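Supplementary material to the annual report.
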Amino acid sequence: MTKKNKPIELEDVVIRFSGDSGDGMQLTGTLFSNTAALLGNDIATFPDYPAEIRAPQGTVGGVSGFQVHFGHARVKTPGDLADVLVAMNPAALKANARWLKPGAMIIIDVDNFTPKNIEKAGYKEDPIREEKLEDYNVIQAPITSLTKRALEDMGLDMKSVLRSKNMFALGMIYWIFNRPLKFTEDFFKSKFKRKPEIIEANERVLKAGYYYAETIEALHVTYVVKPAEIEKGTYRNINGNTATAWGLIAAAEKAGLQLFVGSYPITPATGILEELALRKNLGVITVQAEDEIAGITTSIGASFAGLLAATTTSGPGLALKSEALGLAVITELPLVVVDVQRGGPSTGLPTKTEQSDLMQVLYGRNGESPVAVVAASTPANCFYYAFEAARLALEHMTPVVLMTDGFLANGSEPWKIPAMSEMPEIKTRIVPEGTDDYEPYKRDPETLARGWAIPGTPGLEHRIGGLEKDEISGNVSYDPVNHQVMTNIRTEKVKRIVHDIPELKVEGEQEGDVLLVGWGSTFGHLKSAQEEMDQEGKKVGLAHFNYINPLPGNVEDVFGNFEKILVCELNMGQFAGYLRMNFPQFDYHQLNKVQGLPFTVAEIKEAVNNLLEG
Amino acid sequence: MSKETSQGVVYTPKDFKSDQEVRWCPGCGDHAILNSVQRAMSQLAIQKEKYAVISGIGCSSRFPYYMATYGFHGIHGRAAAISTGVKVANPELSVWTITGDGDSLAIGGNHLIHAVRRNVDINLLLFNNRIYGLTKGQYSPTSVKGQVTKTSPYGTVEPPFNPGELVIGAKGKFFARTLDGNIKLSTDIFIEAARHEGTSVVEILQNCVIYNNGAYADITDREHKEDRQIILRDGEPMIFGKERDKGLILDREHMKLKVVKIGENGISEKDILVHNSTENNPGLHMMLVNMRWPNYPVALGIIRNVAAPTYDMAVHAQIGKVKESSPINKMDDLLTSGNTWEVQ
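Predicted assembly:
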């Protein structure tokens, strides 16, 4: 074994694994991220994969990528540009060459750079030259052939052999970044418990890649990224969908209710339903409904019957649920609707991220139909906002929409695990048996929440439904004035939630030249931009919204402290329009992007600089 | 007859009437159905607070407002799905789904077949008047071919659904058919539907006095009804007719039912088929639900009543089983399970 040179210390590194959608790049990226997290780095990940499960091999459309950003300092985004690109074929290079830092390291599987594949990817003959990457640190590794050789005496079929070549690339990356193989080997052992030959094959190939990197001259340098200085505690790695599922379970436990989730599979929300279906040990009831409408209506039925009910979906599914969401509004039942946004309209870009459902969530129903809306802003805080959505639904007797998106759903980060004792109490509005003066629409004078009388309770039998209700009794009423009264009450009830949510905080400068405004998943990129501009001496603050309806109570005060306001969102200006409607006294500048991708920190800074100069 | 519940309460039909004024048209078949349901509930020995009556949209779906039980008036087509949620959330409730031919066979067809397929323990009363009444007279998925309505001024050109055929085709375990005006038969069927564990679908042939008056006159008029209806009862031969002289046999050569006259061609009562609603094989039940006048009498009564595991119980049984063997019993266990690490 050759002796390693002293490794070079780096603050943070961005690696992008990319290959055909069947090459196992998502797993490779996840395994690297888990190892980084277990070693104490802060991380942020960004899977970027096509909608097709197996798109035509070797084409740019079929490229699946996984970007991981790990660092010694706090990491807030998966990174704009990569320091290292693993490209398993020419198409992967084609799709990702523009996301490289100048001089980046590029590891290619040279075995797959055949004339046919080169042509398929849209190159003429020499992809490296055609991309002008000659000066980059290109490592041409014969990954496929070395994988075959490592396994030649095992008698495995060619399909299984080729399936493990991603581990060769991972082995190389582990050596370059001085990472132990142990965590990944442990993963093989638990994942393939009953298939010892698969465990061995994966271990062999992982090691073959590791030793190959050590042996070849091109890699005489290795790097370390020291653990991040993060708050003491117990951590785990978590993605947004899992965090959302867990937040709902936590809320049910805190409220002393069983959790019911009626849902229909839809990208990128399906992971929440899958995670909840696993949690029967915690009493979670999941109904995989026959369609999106049955997803929400079974949940409304369960809510009527006294359970914490939720339904999970993405934009197209929310469109199908909108009539039923109105039913939950008029029956004033607690319900959590999770919208994991994706690119639209219609089927749009199912696997890509976007924030373009905001108007649909706020207004996409018939009639005056207000719902409370909250938005998570990091993968891990999906836990807290799912919990919060459930708390608000139960305490205020209203449907609440939690907005996340593909970027949060699939992205992951280390998360300091909370203890349940630290989570806020949730007090339900359940009407106790023996209440003499029960009326279905009698309200708490402060919140305007009505009581929740659960079927099975003697003496509280009542009828509710989608027809307009009499103000107190809940009987059907066509009275014109009553309809006005009830419309006002439903609006006011949601408005009063403002007293139950925190005020808007400003990150960085509290007053100054430009206020960055964002909501939801753009937090990491906006925060990074704000911090970098702060270091450059610019007077830039960030106001990031997690509460969308109602908005926090101090928005006017915050906005008034800055010369200019720049609203940044991954849509064509929906939140900016909403702010204009609510606070018309301010001027709003906009930064909008709908490319199925998150912002880059550089684009945000450029937009702020333009404003500062303008 | 009224029976005592486990808590010693004896109900009368009146106990199930709400204080709301019933607003169906005078002469509508729904009045009689309401009456039958209230009678059935008073005889079921179930505490009133355990009943949940869930409906969709349509004339029939106003039903919950007239009941003194827990009730939920949903949106168009979704009654079966809402009911599924209620029953799975609390299997102790007796869930009654009130729906019509438009509600559950057009806009809500998907929910109906899936509730039936899953065998959710609900009692689904399908008021079939072969017309859209609440929207004032358009054709429905059960309107007879050629029926003239406001949206088929030249007659419909589409063949109708037969609800029984659809339900049995969707793996239905309980299907019964009754007439709105036959309160005795309806009450008996509703009681059996409630006792059956699983999705019990009861098709109620219902007259719409305004938009489809006489929808079933061909089989209900006094003069002919005995010849044109057959009321099936378990263990009894399938005999009908004013003179009780007609019966059903299986024409084995053509694999279909055949109407025969007892005493003719050597046919005696022992040749007549005997009804067995509990037979798992749906073949004969399918033939019975498909009988139509004038070739056959229309079958009424409980046609199919087969025991099978229910969805709601299966859901809870699985949760119980997983809980028993899992080391994760509360959220704190889950939070700290799997790959975690300490930062010092």
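The first strand of chain A starts at residue 8 and ends at 9.
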